[in-house]
Design goal:
mainly alpha; Arc Repressor Mutant, subunit A; Four Helix Bundle (Hemerythrin (Met), subunit A); 3-stranded antiparallel sheet; about 75% helix
C-alpha cells in the first residue's frame, strides 16, 4: 500500500476517537505484516509508522503493543520493534490448538449466531466464491480476517475470542508467505465458503464437518510448506 494512499484514506475518514484510531492503526499494520509488506525481521519505527498512516504516535504505539501480544511483532526495550520471524515447525503446534478452537466455534456459531450474523456469513461465503473464481489473494485475506472475527463474535464466548486472537494473525501470515509455492487458493476459499454456509443453515454437525475439511486442508498445506522449505 503506497504511503500517499494511506494518507488519503486517513483524511477521508475524518476525526476519530483515540480508541477507533488505535483500531484503525492495528488493522492497517496487521494487514501490512500479514501480507509481508512489512517483512519478517524488519525494524519498525513508531514515528515513521505514525507519519505513514497519518495517525498519532499513541494509537500506533497501542496497536504495536496489541500486535506484540499476538506474536506478530517483538518489542525490545531500548532496542526497537521487530516484525517477528516465521517458524514453520511451530505452525504445526499452533494448528493443534486452532483445530479444537475452530470446532468449538463451528458448533456454537451454528447454534448462537443472530440473523444479522448469518446474513454476514452468507455474504462472506459469496465473497469467498468470487475470490476463488478470480484467484484474488488480497480479497481472500480480507474476507478471511472478517470471517475469523465474525466466528469469534457469533460464538458468544470471550475465552475462545481471547485464545483465537493469539492465533489468527500468525496463521494468515503463514498462509500468505507460502501460498504461492504450495497452496490452492481457490480450493481454500471454497472451503471457507462451505464452512460459512454450514453456519447459515444452523446445522452444528455440518458446521463441524466443514470446519474439519478446512483444517485438514490447512494442515496439509502447512506440511507441504515444511517440505518445501526443508
Amino acid at each position: 500500500m503506497a504511503e500517499g494512499s494511506l494518507e488519503r484514506e486517513a483524511a477521508a475518514e475524518g476525526v476519530e476517537s483515540e480508541g477507533s484510531l488505535t483500531d484503525r492503526a492495528y488493522k492497517r499494520l496487521e494487514e501490512l505484516i500479514v501480507t509481508l509488506r512489512l517483512a519478517p525481521g524488519a525494524v519498525l519505527s513508531e514515528a515513521h509508522l505514525a507519519k505513514q498512516l497519518s495517525i498519532g504516535r499513541t494509537p500506533v504505539r497501542e496497536a504495536l503493543q496489541r500486535l506484540a501480544r499476538e506474536g506478530l511483532v517483538t518489542i525490545l526495550p531500548r532496542r526497537g520493534i521487530l516484525v517477528s520471524e516465521i517458524n514453520v515447525k511451530r505452525q504445526l503446534k499452533l494448528l493443534e490448538v486452532r483445530r479444537e478452537l475452530e470446532r468449538l466455534m463451528a458448533r456454537t456459531c451454528a447454534q448462537r449466531a443472530s440473523e444479522a450474523e448469518r446474513a454476514e456469513f452468507d455474504e462472506i461465503a459469496d465473497g469467498m466464491d468470487e475470490a476463488a473464481a478470480r484467484n484474488d489473494d488480497i480479497t481472500f485475506m480480507r474476507l478471511d480476517r472478517r470471517f475469523n472475527l465474525l466466528l469469534c463474535q457469533a460464538s458468544r464466548n470471550e475465552y475462545v475470542t481471547n485464545a483465537m486472537s493469539l492465533i489468527q494473525g500468525l496463521s494468515r501470515r503463514f498462509w500468505y508467505s507460502h501460498y504461492r509455492e504450495v497452496a490452492d487458493l481457490p480450493l481454500c476459499a471454497r472451503l471457507h465458503a462451505q464452512f460459512a454456509r454450514a453456519i447459515v443453515t444452523r446445522d452444528p454437525a455440518e458446521a463441524v464437518i466443514a470446519c474439519d475439511r478446512l483444517m485438514d486442508y490447512t494442515e496439509d498445506f502447512t506440511r507441504a510448506s515444511l517440505d518445501a522449505s526443508a
